[in-house]
Amino acid sequence: MNRKISVLIIEDDPVISEFIQTGLRYENYEVTTSNSGNGGLDLLYQNSFSLLVLDIVLPDIDGFEVCRRIRNDGFDLPVLMLTVKKNISDRVRGLDSGADDYLTKPFSFDELLARIRALLRRSGKIKKDRIITAGVLVLNAETREVSFKDRRLNLTPTEFALLEIFMSYPHRVFTRETLLNRVLGYDYDGGTNIIDVHVNHLRLKLDDKLHQIIRTRYGVGYAFYPEVR
Predict the structure, then answer these.
(1) CATH of the domain at 155
(2) What does the H/E/C string look like for the chain?
(3) 229 lies in some domain
(4) Pairwise pLDDT comparison (189 vs 44), residue with the higher score
(5) What is the pLDDT of residue 114?
(6) Contact, 214 vs 171, CB < 8 A?
(7) What is the reported pLDDT for 184?
(8) Pairing between strand 79-83 and 51-55?
């Protein structure tokens, strides 16, 4: 992104709130948070935001009421609702109150980001495909296509999510915990070696036998070097 897009998060769970805001700031969004419905409404009335991420269960008024009030007052920003509730009636109620999309917890950051980008495109905030070029790699985040040395790579969703993170921030060292949280979700078990497995699969597809494109930082994590051919 060339310019920052402002997002308001209304979420009373500090773990989930931190998970979302950390990921969005990595993606160059400007993030403001509130842990209550009334506090979030105050921020909405005092500032201009591009998108609202809204939890349903809040300590004072619920997300349905927050959404109903802002729609009645003429706010047209996209609203993405978060909830642990999975039944259809809650989804219908959320959409009827004015939400644009609905995401059930737990969720991965990759899924959240995809929903946010889709809402911003629909609202006109993002008008072009997000294409990342790094060395001989080209990744289209909207069509989810990747080409490497002019041949298309067949990546799994997890491999794609990892590569998008790496290509967005070349040379930055990512810890395994950060990659786990951003790709597989804030509640994922950090004791697993699943990130190492997916990184090794990605290396094979990039012909990275010497581990020079995706480098291991022992005791820390991984960093991406796109200039290696």
Answers:
(1) 1.10.10.10
(2) CCCCCEEEEECCCHHHHHHHHHHHHHCCCEEEEECCHHHHHHHHHHCCCCEEEEECCCCCCCHHHHHHHHHHCCCCCCEEEEECCCCHHHHHHHHHCCCCEEEECCCCHHHHHHHHHHHHHHHCCCCCCCEEEECCEEEECCCCEEEECCEEECCCHHHHHHHHHHHHCCCCCEEHHHHHHHHHCCCCCCCCCHHHHHHHHHHHHCCCCCCCCEEEECCCEEEECCCCC
(3) no
(4) 44
(5) 87
(6) no
(7) 74
(8) parallel
Provide the token pair at 94. Answer: 């959320």
If you search the block for the tokens 């070029």, which residue do you land on? Answer: 133
What is the pLDDT confidence band of residue 128, given thresholds at 50, 70 and 90?
Answer: low
pTM of the model: 0.66
Same domain membership, residue 109 and residue 16 = yes
Residue at 156: amino acid letter: T
Residue 21 in domain: yes
Residues 190 and 93 both lie in one domain:
no
How many angstroms separate the CA atoms of 16 and 24, rounded?
12
Based on the fold, state whether residues 110 and 177 are members of the same structural domain: no
The dihedrals phi and psi of 151, each to the nearest 5 degrees, come to -125, 145
The pLDDT tens digits of the residues spanning 50-69 come to 999 999 999 999 999 999 99
* Sheet with strand 131-134: strands edge to edge: 131-134, 137-140, 145-148, 151-153
| 78 or 91, higher pLDDT | 78
Pairing of strands 51-55, 30-34: unpaired
The C-alpha atoms of residue 103 and residue 189 are separated, in whole angstroms, by 21
